[in-house]
Amino acid sequence: MIDLVTLGETMVLFVPVETGSIKYVYQFNKQIGGAESNVAIGLSRLGIKTGWISKLGKDGFGDYIESFIRGEGVDVSQVKRDEQHPTGVFFKERRELGESKVYYYRKGSAASFINENDLDENYISQAKYLHLTGITPGLSESCCEAVYKAIEIAKKHDLKIIFDPNIRLKVWNNKDKMINILLDLIKKSDIVLPGLSEAKILINEDDKDKILDRFLNLGPEIVVLKMGEKGAYLGTKDKRVLVPGFQVPKIIDPIGAGDAFAAGFITGLTKRYELEESVKLGNACGAFALTVKGDVESLPSWDELKEFVGNSPELNR
């Protein structure tokens, strides 16, 4: 039995050993990166059973990704290998001053050819949650169709749909099309996890209460607005609560914090904690993600997470 199923692309990630312009960096560490698999791995480390649906090239990079994710306890039985198209790769650029950058080499990747036929209804139906992001529908028309098919299956079998907009402007060719599709996916979701910057893009709003109003009016039962170091703002039709974040003395790598938040929050939902306690777990996991280079290397175990949040009674039930 699987608690959560997710769908999306994972690539090989090359992280520079040194900071500075990628033009002058000569050594990289090989890791993996993909929003959906980040969440699946984060959940697995916290004791939640997860499955990841994707496509990889039939190449060494694909072997590496599949082996790594399987090794983290995620079910990869629904991952298909494509002999015609390669596994995608991307590079991070780390800077002490200014914003770090990400360079994608994913066009024509195996995962961009995911389609409806890659979905096994019986497999998805066994889960409690379907996790999706706004990255997958931007990869190709067939990927977008697969996302909508996954939602159709989830609704048929009463899965809760969790959607993280996870906006990647480099993935989409048309910004207006992106906004229309992502807002439509929000309407079809039960739980939505946007960031402040994403709300600004999607609904041109930066007031936290107005953001919750707008998103909740689209249909979700729960909206959690991620607000960085301030924490996260939880909204339902009955309550609004700002759950404070955790201070991180030194931020090493901010990329992946949103996925870590999702893993912690969904863990709380799965363990049937109160919503505020679940958001607290999300904030804690997000803090962990800031402390190490790479998307998944810093994600905590359940024991580490309990210790970090103070071993509260709620977490020891």
Automatic annotation (TrEMBL):
User: What CDD domains is this protein classified in?
Assistant: KdgK
Q: From its record, what is one biological process in GO terms?
A: fructose metabolic process
UniProt KW keywords? ATP-binding, Kinase, Nucleotide-binding, Transferase
Named from the GO MF annotations, one term is: ATP binding
Provide the Carbohydrate kinase PfkB domain boundaries.
2-301
Q: Which domain of life is it from?
A: Bacteria
**Name of a matching Pfam family:** PfkB
Keyword Transferase assigned: yes
Q: Establish whether keyword Glycoprotein is in the entry.
A: no
| InterPro entries hit by this protein | Carboh/pur_kinase_PfkB_CS, PfkB_Carbo_kinase, PfkB_dom, Ribo/fructo_kinase, Ribokinase-like
Q: Which family does it belong to?
A: Belongs to the carbohydrate kinase PfkB family.
From the Swiss-Prot or TrEMBL record, give the protein name: 5-dehydro-2-deoxygluconokinase
